[in-house]
Amino acid sequence: MKKLFYTLFICSFVFVATPAFAKSESIFYYFPNEEGYESLQENYRDIDIFAPQTYTVGYDLRLMDRTGNQAHEFARKKRMDVMPLVIQANFDKALMTRLLKDEDAQEDLIDDLIDEAKDNRYIGWQFDFENINYLDRDAYVDFVEKASKEFKKKRLEFSVAVIPSTVPFDPYALTQDWSSGYDIEAIGEHVDFISLMSYDDPRSTGPVSSIQYLERVVNETLEKIDAEKISMGIPMYCWQYELGNPKKIANVTYPTSYNTLEKYKDTLAINFYSDIHEAEIFLFLKDKLNIIWCDNARSFEAKLDFIDEYDMRGFSAWALGQEDENIWKQL
Fold it and tell me: Do the Cβ atoms of 185 and 197 come closer than 8 Å?
């Protein structure tokens, strides 16, 4: 009888203590600027992984000195989990080809990243190499695999930022975009997770990343990699258009959009929410009619629901300092 009571007690405790669902992992990107640093200071408690874009591979194929030291020191003081991004200088395609053809340079870079992580107590690294030649696609996978093996030895987490595509890769296509350099399925075999750069729809003439766009790219990506390995990109910034010009004229922040609306309130200045796109729209008259599309707190909530619906790992948000401050109430 005592044994039965003990078993029931333990089972009841496990049932009560186990959460109903796992919270989505939040990754917030950071590019050194005043607004981003202020947001980091105010909201660091709600950030699971701080991912600053502050490391660059230079034209000598070596790791350059870190930038954004103020934010790094703050994150260290607050004992945040930090996973910095590493990019190639200017996202230079030729530079990336040189790196992928030089195994000695790759080994030196991996060693430097391991040492840097140890010295600064980073939890790992994210490769954010972009504008990779599609002819270097397989070589990039080899580089990722090589880095993964060495990082695992040091118990470092490893992720890769990838640009989503909505059509199958065609090695014989005359035109290739930035997504062509990533074999997501092969990369996924060697990393803890990918950050899907779905925060930017390159073909959009409206929302930065509509819910319809996310549905397309996420479903296409799920054919290649498990949902638990996907951190879905969410934009914090906005796109501005001018009537009659199909191309966006500026990337602006959410606070700037509201300030602009206030500035032109004596002419024409309105804002409303599009349920279809899950985005906020700002309209104001400045010589011509201007339109700004933003992700606000409501958009953010819709995308968190989308992540939960697909059982994805979490989200990667670009970038601190650009956001609707109300998003932090949802975290």
Answer: no
Tell me if residue 220 falls in helix, strand or coil: helix
- What SS3 class is residue 25? strand
Secondary structure of residue 135 in the 3-state scheme:
helix
Q: How far apart are CA 132 and CA 184, in angstroms?
A: 13
CA dihedral 21, 318, 27, 218 (to 10 degrees): 50
Report how far residue 113's alpha carbon sits from residue 115's, in angstroms, rounded to the nearest whole number.
5
Q: For residues 163 and 257, give the distance between their C-alpha atoms in angstroms, rounded to a whole number.
A: 27
Token reading at 223: 């054919």
Residues 6 or more apart from 151 whose CB is under 8 A from it? 110, 113, 114, 124, 125, 157, 158
Distance CA 117, CA 115 (A): 5
Q: 53-76 pLDDT, tens per residue? A: 999 999 999 999 999 999 999 999
Which domains does the chain show, CATH number per domain? Answer: 22-236+296-330 (3.20.20.80), 237-294 (3.10.50.10)
Would the pTM count as exceeding 0.85?
Answer: yes
